[in-house]
Amino acid sequence: MKKIKSNKRIGKRVLACAVLATSLILPSLPASTSAASSPYTLYTVGSSTDKTASTTFGQVYMGGSTDVDEAFKWMIQKANGGDFLVIRATGTDAYNQYIFDLAKSIGKPLNSVSTIVVNDLASAGSNSSLIDKINKAEGIFFAGGNQADYVDFLKGSSALTALNNRIAQGIPFGGTSAGTMIQGDHIYDSISAGSTTLDSPTALRNPYSSLISFTDYLVQTPNNNNIQTDTHFEQRDRMGRFLTFLARDIQDGEETGTSAKGIAVNEQSALLVEKDGSAKVVTQPGATNAAVYMAKTNQAPTTCVSGTPLTFNNISVYKLFNGSTFNLSTWTGAGGLSYTLNVNNGVINSSTGNVYGGNQP
C-alpha cells in the first residue's frame, strides 16, 4: 500500500553555502475572469457544464518533445467521457483541441478539455475556483515547462491536497517533461539552478553542486514510492545527473542503499502505469532512441560528498522499449535490456559498454 508522507520544506536538500469543433462546442477561449484579477487563465473546449464520470486510475510518465498519442488515448479511455484538465505555468491552450479531437477519433468523446495557465504561482494554489476545477476533473495532465514553477505552485497548497485527493479517488494522472519531473517521491526541482541547466558532467564532478536542489513527497500516487525521475534523457545525455540524484537520495537519508529507484524517460516515449503497478511503454511513431529506463540501487554510494567526484557502484538498470512491460511492485520487466552501471571518480562504466545500454535484444 502506498505510504503517505508529509510534504517537506523546499531547500531541505540544497547545499548550504487538429479538427474543427461542432457548433455545439465552445471555442477554446479564456474564461471571462482576466489574468489581472485571477491567478490563472482558463481555456475550455467542449461543454461548460460539469459532468461526473466513473474513472480508472493510471499514471503517465512522458519524456518530453513531441507528445505520445497513445499515452493520451490511454488517459482518455480512463477519463471515461468526463472533464479533462491540463495544468501549465507557461504556454497556451494548444492541448485543448488536440486532446478533444483525439478523444472523438477513438470513439471516446470527452465532455470538455480545459487548460489552466497559472499566472501567479504564489496565490493560485489557494484559489477556490482553481481548486474546484481540480476537484471536478476526470483526468489531469501537467504540461512541460519548468518544474520549479510547479513546485512553487503546489507545495503546501490546497491545490496539492485536491490533486492528491483526486488521484486517490482514481482519476488518470500524468505529465510530460517538467510534468514528469514532479511525479516521483523525490524531485530535482531546479529551484537552486535558476535559468542554468544542470548537465551530467557538473553533477558527477560535484554531487553537492549549488545547482542541485530537491523537493520530496509532493504528488502521491499508488506506485511512486522511492522514485526519482528524469526526462529528455538520452537526447540530453542525463544519465550522469540521474545517477547523482539517486546517490543524493541515499546520502541525504531519504532512501537506503537498496531502496532508491528511478524512472528516466527519453523524448517521444511514455511509461503507462496501472494502479497495480503493471506498466507498459508506448512511443510516438518515428521517434529516435525511444526508451524508458528503470533504475534500482543495490548499495550506498562510496563517495558522495561536496567538491569530490561521485563514486557509486552496482546500479541495476532495465531499459524498456516500445511494447516492453514492467511491474513497479516487483521491479521486474519483460522485453527489455538488463545491465549494470558503476560510477568511479565521476566516470560511468556500463556492463554493455554503452551507458544507455544499447539496442533491444
Report on this structure:
The chain has one domain: 3-Layer(aba) Sandwich (Rossmann fold), CATH 3.40.50. By secondary structure, the chain is of the alpha+beta class. It starts with 25 loop residues before the first strand and ends in an 11-residue tail after the last strand. 22% of the residues lie in helices and 27% in strands. It is globular. It is built from nine helices and 19 strands. The chain has helices at 69-79, 94-105, 121-124, 128-135, 147-154, 158-169, 178-181, 200-205, 239-251; strands spanning 26-30, 40-46, 58-62, 83-88, 112-118, 139-142, 172-176, 186-188, 214-216, 227-230, 261-265, 269-274, 278-283, 292-297, 312-320, 325-327, 332-334, 337-344, 347-350. Mean pLDDT is 92; it is low at 1-11, 15-27 and 31-35. The longest helix is centred in the C-terminal third of the chain and has 13 residues, at 239-251. The strands form three sheets. Strands 1-2-5-4-6-7-3-12-13-16-17 form an eleven-stranded mixed β-sheet, sandwiched between helices. Strands 10-11-14-15-18-19 form a six-stranded mixed β-sheet, covered by helices on one side. Strand 18 (337-344) and strand 19 form a beta hairpin. Helix 4 (128-135) packs parallel to helix 6 (158-169).
